[in-house]
Amino acid sequence: MTTTPTPDPAASGRDRTLYCAASCDLNHAAVPHPPWDCNAPDDAPTLTAAQRAAMQDGELPWVRHATPLVLSAGEVDRLRHPIGSAMHALEVDELDRDLPEAERFSPRLEAVELRLIRAKLDAERASTRLDVLARFSCDDANQLRQVIEDAAGRLGDLIRRRDAATPGYLVGSKFFGTAAEGLLDWSMATLERQQHRPTARTEPAITASLQLTDRDHKHLREEADHRRQTLSQAVRQWPTGGAGRGER
Q1: Nearest C-alpha neighbor of 93 from the set 246, 244, 248
Q2: Confidence bin at 26 (pLDDT 50/70/90)
């Protein structure tokens, strides 16, 4: 996601930073940004740094227009599938390259997938006669998009490594490219939903969050331990120990 604009260093001590003040996609996502970084028209209103400093917080465009992300239980479930696919693809690649834990991205995707499962189940339990939506805060929606875009970038790196490998892989990289495109489509769709769903603040919805609970941390630790045990057993049972990794 776009970050807060930085001041112009050539402004001779005066902050000449401009902020978009339009009802654009990023202001609806509560992201302060320069006027050229969103879907606002060229003649959209802007704020100078001095004007921003003089305004009350509630009057700032990225506060006034901020809109949570609402998704139905079915949409949450559909979003979960490409995230889960990316998680498994990256997990296999990270294990194959023996990446240290601190550099692995698949656990982050697994945590997001778990929170989406919780949101889906909570929304389904709250639905009786009418579907109840899951409402994510702007911070959570931005975090979700950041994870999605980072995962797509990691898949792109995986595709480039596979395409450059000698000997080549038996299975091509089309699956990973499709997964990356699907993730980026969801990133754009959630941003558009926030901009064009003015009722998102007031619609009946359960509060959903990507923040992990103690229960979530325990579940993820147990899952990681189970996978490590399964992998260790598979390696011990393989006659040559290291052979069989990968598909070439």
Answers
A1: 246
A2: very high
> Across residues 10-33, what is the average pLDDT?
87
Asked, as a colleague might, if the bond just before 167 is cis with ω within 30 of 0, I would say: yes
**219: enclosing H helix or E strand:** helix 214-237
- At 161, is the secondary structure helix, strand, or coil? helix
What count of residues does the chain have? Answer: 248
Least confident range of 27-31, 79-83, 220-224 = 220-224
Print the SS3 string covering 108-126.
HHHHHHHHHHHHHHHHHHH
How crowded is the C-beta side of 69, counted as CA atoms within 13 Å?
31
Q: Which among 116, 83, 111 is positioned nearest to 185, based on CA atoms?
A: 83
Instruction: Give the pair of three-digit tokens for residue 240.
Output: 């040559």
The pLDDT score that the predictor gives to residue 241 is 40
CA atoms within 13 A on the CB side of 32: 15
pLDDT, tens digit, 9 for 90 and up, residues 141-170: 999 999 999 999 999 999 999 999 888 887
Distance CA 118, CA 111 (A): 11
List, as own/partner pairs, every contact residues 34-43 make where C-beta atoms lie below 8 angstroms and the sequence separation is at least 24, other chains included.
Answer: 34/5, 37/2, 38/2, 39/195
pTM: 0.83
What letter would DSSP give residue 19?
E
Buried b (16+ CB within 10 A) or exposed e, 182-212: bbbebbeebbebbbebeebeeeebbebbbeb
